[in-house]
């Protein structure tokens, strides 16, 4: 019999919560043969990356996933065999009671935030709290052996490689978004939180000897882009040129299209969690805007990832990449680190591919979750 899974997603802010859980739910259905209910408290956030969502529906099927609106007033539902609380969200007490009432308790896990920090390996799969005898476990995604790995659909890297070798497919995809880069222009994407350092990066791109076409999906960084351009009310479709730099605003696209966008670009600035991972699967150099946390603890997370990611780079390339990422995450001047990085572009590009292939050798997160369940029953 197929195992039944419940995934609970509370949208705190932005799109990472729903982005990760929607991706996981689809993968559990399509690749692991699971029955999955995805409980989401904010269907409007979901609609941004999955426009066919009916935001009024209490229940609907999307790509084989039983999508449920998670109402403020819990209406009751029997517990599944496996229960995932994403990013430490609190399950409805009524639902937890049904977990405790089952003849056989479900496997209950907290799917944690992604981090490259050392302690993650020691905490992955450890027991956490109990509720009326039902044990909860920590489940950590991660980059190292001994963690739960990263979300990666079967065949993703092969699809990505085929697409990157197909100039016609890339051109058609870009044209479908109204993107027509000039011959020889570098194509970059920019998905980030507000960042006062942006202007210094755009300045240096505009004065570069080589043309850059920068694609900016609608979102929080648009205010900084607008200020730099001296334009008002930027919306999707707008194209502005300043010397060597063309800036184009894109609509927020479906998750699958966003992957294609990343695959087309020579360089991707990404943020949060899910887009950060997708940019790594794109096999191209990237820049991460980490989600800011109190007391700057996110900077430890940033350093931990940088240490791992740059371990195989030459000292000079490593210094350039670290300087760029740190400048971006402290909203500092980007000009000098960017110029330094350009000097090491071939090495950094090759490294992005190698890193992707190495990470692709690990079991993906959905498989790791199913393996944990199978070893637990
Ligand atoms: O939106 P985010 O900033 O989400 C954040 C982080 O996950 C953070 O860790 C978390 O604490 C906070 O949410 C609550 O960035 P992230 O994780 O990259 O999620 C964006 C999602 O949006 C991702 O699934 C990709 C998707 N996306 C599209 O589908 N289309 C688009 O056009 C773009 C730009 C993104």
Automatic annotation (TrEMBL):
GO terms for molecular function: protein-arginine rhamnosyltransferase activity; translation elongation factor activity. InterPro entries: EarP (IPR016633). The keyword Protein biosynthesis applies. The keyword Glycosyltransferase applies. Keywords: Elongation factor, Glycosyltransferase, Protein biosynthesis, Transferase. NCBIfam families: efp_Arg_rhamno. Protein-arginine rhamnosyltransferase that catalyzes the transfer of a single rhamnose to elongation factor P (EF-P) on 'Lys-32', a modification required for EF-P-dependent rescue of polyproline stalled ribosomes. This is Protein-arginine rhamnosyltransferase. It comes from Pseudomonas lactucae.
